[in-house]
Design goal:
This protein is α/β, with parallel strands linked by helices. It has 13 helices and 19 strands. The chain has two domains: 231 residues, Aldehyde Dehydrogenase, Chain A, domain 1 (3-Layer(aba) Sandwich); 155 residues, 3-Layer(aba) Sandwich (Aldehyde Dehydrogenase, Chain A, domain 2), CATH 3.40.309.10. The termini are far apart.
């Protein structure tokens, strides 16, 4: 099986013919050969997107036609749910990846429905670089709003998760989206670097870690290309002493979250969270009963293993053996400055006063549990988080990148 680039309306190998193995994290054996892109492949993809924008019909296609084609793409995504589930399951061990598909399709429809009119000029060529976390959703959250506004796109997925991005590129062609409008170039950091430094790129959108985000921003600075960074960060959950503990535990995701729990209910909450963790089935993502699959690869596994063996107290969970599986794990007494936990691991720490919770709990996404409306208003008003939910775990369904970033504001003054 081969996974190829999608450039200028065709599946194609790399210019130099290079390939790399796509490894299934369950078996730890290669299941596909992937086109390993290089700087020249990135240049070809950008050139195709540039031609499609400057001389092709997409930017000048009316909103009703763009809506029709993108709605058709959303339908094809839904029809391909099984393929996407297998792709993300075999690439990064994502369990129940099929649940991402309806959200991805809705994201496409939502993006085009948010375009009220064609008053704004599209920005041009958008380079989208995404991490291995939730591969399909990360890709769609950049591709959908960019295409909806008449831009062309070069999508570069993580080298660990090429399959769903390549499938999305093929489906765009089946939907009737013109050649060169959505290009997918596969590979590793050298491809991303070539995209960020290419002067023909008008906008850069990145989803991933802070470390890589800094590299992307420095590359964008070469040509002063506007860049949007959607940085992966550990969500925070603040549980106050008057909270509904069952509600706080029931919806908890074992996704690296940082739980801050008021001292009076700390032990009770910790016991309930650990009990929930023990009920989650670990196994092959292809099994519909599996809740937690393996980690994406050796890099992620060794990072988590180092944390589990090098610090903190394991309340429940831990490593399973010599494979890439980690049981759902609850950790305490871990340093608060850990930015990312790429596995089914959460940390729990006590707090005494609101000031401590506000200081430690500010993250990109913060959830607060309290029965006191006044406290909810007081705490949320002090948090500097971008997304805040109270007494429920919110689903992230927006398309993230706003109208301003993906369009070009024009002021035209004429004198005759």
């Amino acid at each position: 099986m081969k996974i190829l680039h999608v450039i200028d309306g065709a599946e194609t190998g790399s210019v130099d013919g290079a390939l790399y193995d796509d490894v299934d994290p369950v078996t730890r054996a290669p299941y596909a050969a992937v086109a390993r892109g290089a700087a020249l492949d990135a240049e070809l993809a950008v050139a195709a997107a540039r031609r499609a924008f400057d001389g092709g019909p997409w930017a000048r296609t009316g909103l009703p036609e763009r809506r029709r084609l993108l709605y058709r793409l959303a339908g094809l995504v839904e029809e391909s749910a099984g393929e996407f589930a297998r792709a993300d399951g075999r690439d990064v061990g994502r369990a129940r990846a099929g649940c991402d598909v309806p959200r991805a399709a809705e994201c496409v429809r939502f993006a085009v429905d948010c375009v009220e009119d064609d008053a704004r000029t599209p920005a041009g060529v958008v380079a989208g670089i995404v991490s291995w976390h939730t591969p399909l959703l990360n890709a769609v959250r950049i591709v959908a709003p960019a295409l909806a506004r008449g831009n062309t796109v070069v999508l570069k997925p993580s080298g660990d998760s090429p399959a769903s991005a390549a499938l999305l590129g093929r489906l765009a062609l089946r939907a009737g989206i013109p050649d060169g409008v959505l290009n997918v170039v596969l590979g590793f950091g050298d491809v991303g670097a070539a995209l960020t430094r290419n002067p023909a790129v008008d906008r850069i959108a990145f989803t991933g870690s802070r470390v890589t985000g800094r590299v992307v921003a420095m590359g964008a600075a070469v040509n002063l290309t506007p860049v949007a960074l959607d940085l992966v960060e550990r969500p925070s959950v603040i549980v106050c002493d008057d909270a509904d503990l069952d509600a706080a535990v029931t919806g908890a995701a074992f996704d690296g979250s940082r739980f801050l729990v008021q001292e009076r209910v700390y032990c009770a909450f910790l016991d309930r969270l650990a009990e929930t963790a023990r009920t989650l089935q670990v196994g092959d993502p292809a099994d519909p009963l599996t809740v937690v699959g393996p980690l994406a690869g050796p890099a992620q596994y060794h990072k988590v293993a180092g944390l589990l063996m090098g610090g903190g107290r394991i309340v429940t969970g831990g490593l399973t053996g010599d494979d890439w599986f980690v049981r759902p794990t609850v950790l305490t007494e871990l340093p608060a400055d850990i930015d990312e936990l790429p596995g089914p691991v959460v940390t729990v720490a006590p707090f005494a006063h609101e000031d401590e919770a506000v200081h430690a709990g500010t993250a990109r996404t913060t959830t607060l549990f309290t029965r006191d409306p006044e406290r909810a208003l007081r705490v949320t008003g002090r948090l500097r988080s971008r997304d805040i939910s109270v007494n429920r775990y919110a689903e992230r369904t927006d398309t993230e990148f706003d109208k301003e970033f993906l369009t070009l504001r024009k002021t035209v003054r004429m004198a005759f």
